[in-house]
Structure formats: C-alpha cells, structure tokens
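Hey, I'm writing a tutorial for new members on how sequence and structure tokens pair up, and I'd like a real worked example in the thread rather than a made-up one. If someone can provide the structure for the chain below, I'll link this post from the tutorial.
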Amino acid sequence: MGAEAVRDDALHVGYTGASRLTLFGAKWAGRTMPAAIACRFDELGSEMDALLDTGAQYCVMRSDVAVELSLDLAAEPHQTILWGSDRIEGVLRKYWVRIPALLGEDIEVEATWFVSEDYDGPMVLGWVAFLDSLDAFGCKLGVRPDEESLFHFSLEQVG
C-alpha cells in the first residue's frame, strides 16, 4: 500500500523560459561537450553553443569572441585559474549574454567572464554571475527519441 501523493506548492518552481539543451551532441574542436546551450551576444548577432558547467567558477569566453566584442584583454588586474591541470592567466570582465528561448522569453544576464588568449576551449557558462544570477534553473531530459532536452530558467520569482 503506497502513500497518497500530495502536491506541495512550496516545491513547485515556475519558469519564464526554456532553451534547447544539447546532450553529447555539440562539438568543439572535435571534442564532445556533455551539455551545451545556445548563447548570443547581441552585438555579434549569431548564436553559439556554450558548455553548461555547474562546476565552473566563472563563465569562460574564447579570446576570438572577446576581440570581436572589443574587450580589453591586456587590462589589469590579471587572474589565474586552474583549467584541468593547466594554470591559465587572463582577465575577468562583465558582459551581457542572451540565452535564446525555445519556449517562453529569452533571458539576458550580465555574466562575469574569464578571458584569456591562452584558453583554447569552448565557451563556458559557469556558476558565478551566470547560473547563480538566475532565480531558478533546471534541466528536463528528453527520454523518448522525439522529445527534446530543455534547460529551463527564470530571472524572476514565479510560482
């Protein structure tokens, strides 16, 4: 005999939008990203895949993108991060990024980006000043072949 399920509205999370979540399908330099979502810098106009990394301290911007956005890579102060087993020197910059919604409304977040000329990996959306800026986020994994995986988000408290 099972217990009767009771809905607790305090546990319900409302989202304002959802983006396509690509699992093991997005590639960077021949390597597969485990989880990626599209992002866009309005000044550049086109979307690009970014690795969604809840363990990354910062977002990481490729230097070619930073140059296109006219970000100063030589400015102080410099920061050193550990990337895998490598120490990489770069700078921290705040810059707005848009997450295009497949459902609902896009969000735009002023993220903190680590930018380095020595970094040769994909764009990364990390914890500090991106995921921790959202009121709520979650992933819904598509389990059937015709079902997409989604990254749900909210910038305002809903529900």
